[in-house]
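Worked example 3. Consider a protein that binds zinc ion.
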Amino acid sequence: MPAWVAALMLAAGPAFLLAPTAAADSKPAVAKDARLAGDRERTRFIADLSKKVEVHAFALGNPYRVIIDAPDVSFQMPAGLGKETRGLVTAYRYGLFAPGKSRIVIDVSGPFLIDKAFVLEPRDDQPARLVVDLVPTDEKTFLAKLQESKPQDTSAGSAPPLPSPAPSPDAKPVVVLDPGHGGIDPGTKSASGTTEKEVVLAFAKILKTKLGAGGRYEVHMTREDDTFLPLRERVAFAQKQGAGLFLSIHADYFPDKPEIVRGATVYTLSEEASDQEAKDLAAKENFSDVIAGVELPSDSDEVLANILIDLAQRETQNRSVVFARSIVGELAGKGRLHTRRLRSAGFRVLKAPDVPSVLLELGFLSNPEDEKRLVSDPWRERMAGSVVKAIDGYFAKRLARNRF
Ligand SMILES: [Zn+2]
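Given these inputs, the predicted complex is written out as structure tokens:
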């Protein structure tokens, strides 16, 4: 068999599994460049790799996407790649999806089939190449193929979350910090290129150290490095840890009035959004899973999950609001708030029925002053200090209530 080709034709639906190569080189493959070719009749995605890797390509609908998973690829692509539109492709992105697992997500404008997906061995002066060919199809065929080839690992699951184990009476309160985005999903980005995923991780690390220092809390983070985590897994992580509090940390972007719109905003979960801005923000934050190519639960799963959540959630919801007020109280008067109003919307990441959960937008990466603060360690220290006080205040209130 010619060593340079390992192609699987579309026979059993739009999923391809390529056999691993015999090469025992343990260094990750480096992806150096990528490009699009062809037209609407056949669009080709090509990525240059330092060596051949095992890939798994599959389709997702709503919105139309191609997902290409590979074990471990170091992406050293030229900046600004992935924004071009060609043929059926409207954009693509790449990055770490989970530890040791890399992913490329290609956005497609309409129903399609993956006609080919293969990796060519390097040859002469040519690098190894990942090649994916897309052809248009009708919606019915697309959906039929989708059913045939459910992805191996969507990491999303569809079961409603399970209740947390009851903590032992003298256990320390568990606080879970959730730096948003990560890996393939950078979140929002400032004009100068500062990404949300970087600033929220740096802030969360400082906050974790500060919170842990007093010995009063057990503190965990949903991610400690530049790894993507689906929203549902963040929720499940908090539940598994038996969290008494969950804080999802983000940074916002508002291009309309970049000079004026600045400061932190505190959000809780609600079915009806408190206002249009909250609704837009929730849509943007919920889009994280789409960016990373996670299959979203079907509408019926969502409805069922929501009913179950509603029953358990009222008390949790009240506590979330108490915590949110505590943060606003700490930040108010220090010039750090965008608005004192508590805002709420359908944030997926706040949906644990049994864990009081709040989403904190630290500031706006669209505002140059906020950006300076978000990357500054002294500012992060002060901001984290305020959040620690808010958490102390929340648990002090809970404790007082439990005693009486
Ligand atoms: Zn975010």
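Take a moment to read the result before moving on. Residues 118 and 311 are 48 Å apart (CA to CA). Residues 299-331 form the longest helix (33 residues).
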